[in-house]
Amino acid sequence: EERRLRDEFYADDESSDRNRQAVESTLSRPESLADSLISQLVMLSLCAEEETVCRKIITSLDSRGYLPYPLAEYAAESGIDHDLLVRCAEIVRSLDPIGCASVSAQDSLLAQAKALYPGDTLLHAVISEHFEALSSLFYDRIAKALGVSSEDVIAKGRIIQGLDPYPGRQFAGGEVRYIIPDAEVFLVDGEIMVSLNDEWIP
């Protein structure tokens, strides 16, 4: 009987060690940009060809959410029909975060402005036609070109400041986090024993 209990104890101890090692090696990974976009993509009613191209676009995005080069070059490199590629890029830009699959900050901000403020043509014009001037705070020059007041341009500038030129960066730079239990529970001679992992407790 004593030997049986000893064998059970060591068996429990070995099992506990294996369980602890399994838990300590478990990784908690934040959701990636590609994971997030693809999970939204599969909810759309797309044909197989569109979904395939959208997936290719998503998996080629950099940490900012940008395409590595303009669509014309991407089409030439990949052999994908240009019109199909443009259509699929627009689909990806409409996913959350809005503005991915763009090639520049201007492109991304314009996509967000059109999605969030579809009727604000002045906002669209400021971004699409006067982005460099806006970056240099040339409000008077922009106002004169568009036939509006400087105050109107400044107001649109404030809206633009609330947008994100790099929509993919909220998913970037996450470190892999190991999950370590605060305590371990053992069964010893029929009694429950609790051991704290002091070094992991702040």
Written description of the protein model:
With 202 residues, the chain is mostly helical. It is 54% helix and 8% strand. The protein is built from ten helices and four strands; from the N terminus they run αβαααααααααβββ. Helix 4 crosses helix 5. It is globular, with a radius of gyration of 27 Å. About 6% of the residues have low confidence.
Number of strands: 4
Mean pLDDT: 81
Largest sheet: 2 strands, antiparallel
Q: Poorly predicted ranges (pLDDT <50, ≥5 residues)?
A: 22-27, 174-180
Strand fraction equals: 5-15%
Strand order of the largest sheet: 1-2
End-to-end distance, in Å? 43 Å
Specify Rg, calculated over alpha carbons. 27 Å
Give the class from helix and strand content and strand pairing.
Answer: mainly alpha
What fraction, in percent, of the residue positions are helical? 40-55%
Secondary-structure element sequence? HEHHHHHHHHHEEE
Specify the number of helices: 10
Shape annotation: globular
Summarize the helices and strands and which ones pair or pack:
Blueprint: H1 2-24, E1 27-28, H2 33-41, H3 48-59, H4 71-78, H5 82-93, H6 105-116, H7 121-129, H8 131-135, H9 139-146, H10 150-161, E2 177-178, E3 183-188, E4 191-196
Antiparallel strand pairs: 1-2, 3-4
Helix pairs in contact: 2-3, 3-5, 4-5, 6-7, 7-10, 9-10
Could you name the key traits of this structure?
202 residues; mainly alpha; two-stranded antiparallel ribbon; two-stranded antiparallel sheet; 4 strands; 54% helix; globular
Give a brief rundown of this model:
The protein is mainly alpha-helical and 202 residues long. It has helices at residues 2-24, 33-41, 48-59, 71-78, 82-93, 105-116, 121-129, 131-135, 139-146, 150-161, and strands at 27-28, 177-178, 183-188, 191-196.
